[in-house]
Amino acid sequence: MNRVSRRRFMQGVATVAGATFVGPYILRAGMPSKKLLFAYIGTGGRGGSHLGMGEAVAWCDVDRSRWPKGKDGQPRWPNAVGYTDYRKMLEKHEKDIDCVVVATPDHHHYPAAMLALKMNKHVYCEKPLTWSVNEARALAEETAKRRLATQMGNQGHANNGNRRVVEWIRAGAIGDVKEVHTWTNRPIWPQGIQQRPPSKPAPENLDWDCWIGPAPYRDYHDGLHPFAWRGWFDFGCGAIGDMGCHTWDCVFWAMDPDYPTTVELVKIVGKSSETWPKQSIVKWEYPAKGNRPAFTAYWYEGGLKPPVPEEILNDPSRTKKQLAGSGSLFIGTKGKLYVEGDYGDSPRLIPESFMKEWQSQPKDEEYQKKYVIPPSQGGHAGEWLAACRGEKPWDFPGSNFAKYAGPLTENMLLGGIAIRLGEEGKKFQCDPVARKILTPEAAALAGREPRAGWKF
């Protein structure tokens, strides 16, 4: 792992960012253009929701049955070319495209995004940004070096609710935050699998070798394509990868944690040698930073949750006395902040009387300037497209790889390493200044050697 501290790295990024306001943006033909041309990697499932970003020169999906079609059943872009191997697509159309959208299984995020960045293409990549800790660091550094527009697909980052959480925490509404608890009802796919299904021939429409890509090769079997791959170590990042970059987004943004000192697996249910477990609880310890004291963060998955706080149980104005299926709970020295759902949609100080008291306090001009975060300009995808067109600097998107998505993903996947180690009560140590995993068995899970032909 790189020994350069995040603080020093971000200072370098900030210097580069300042230059982009006067320097050229890297686009096809080297000049800003409002007509962006795209290559889409992954067009079925989640990928289908991104196809409206712009006109395609080419697309890639390993499953030909999921290639994009118009309402008449014909190809959506008659002049665009379809592929099952994005390496061939990008090599063929490198000079024709400005932007690449990646919406594949997790294990393909890094090679697809890195290959595009090295071709100086702007990249939008679904969450989690990468399959591994090392890959997240590498994409962040490559993005900062090339000053390209990037955005990770944690769409809630553009929501006003998450901005409100950050505002209240930084304004001291609940005092110093000591603990944060975040939970999800995922997985909604099989995990804790004890035996791999038998091998069988891959469907004729599926390029199985390209589906495997950088991961260790295995024969096709049920429970992988097109969705349940998330539960398998080799291909997905489990619930902590699927929803962590959504549900934990408000935590990372508000607390600005950098890197932990320790990560611990508190609980595991349904442990497996090949898949993520049925349930788990992870704990991070973060050191003090500036005026923010040290704090502890918890992650619960598989339906596990923290205890319902008394401020909810004893609040006469509340009819619902249970925690939502997913959410976050910030515990401070002066009160608590409860966030329902995965996208920061409805944050509330609890109990409701505390919320009304906070709302009644005047917020002067100084408060507005210091704590209130303006609404997203153009929404999550719009932020990225504005930067791609050269209307905004390369690091304008809120979840750009260099300053936000890379570090966020890295922290979540440290929790994933604790789950993969699989021993309750076991902590692994980190150096929060060097941003380095110190415990050897944990460091061994920070990355892997890709299969031949997939190393970028």
Structure notes:
This protein has 456 residues and is of the alpha/beta class. It folds into two domains: 6-157 and 377-406, NAD(P)-binding Rossmann-like Domain (Rossmann fold), CATH 3.40.50.720; 159-371, Dihydrodipicolinate Reductase, domain 2 (2-Layer Sandwich), CATH 3.30.360. It has helices at residues 6-20, 86-93, 109-118, 133-146, 160-170, 208-212, 238-247, 249-255, 310-313, 352-360, 365-371, 379-388, 401-421, 440-443, and strands at 37-41, 55-60, 81-83, 99-102, 122-125, 150-152, 177-183, 262-269, 279-286, 295-301, 327-332, 336-340, 346-350, 427-431, 436-437. The strands form two sheets. Strands 13-12-11-7-10-9-8-14-15 form a nine-stranded mixed sheet. A six-stranded parallel sheet has the order 3-2-1-4-5-6, with helices on both faces. A hairpin with a 3-residue loop joins strand 11 (327-332) and strand 12. Helix 3 (109-118) packs parallel to helix 4 and helix 7 runs antiparallel to helix 13 (401-421). The longest helix has 21 residues, at 401-421. The two termini are 17 Å apart. The model is unreliable at 1-31 (pLDDT under 50).
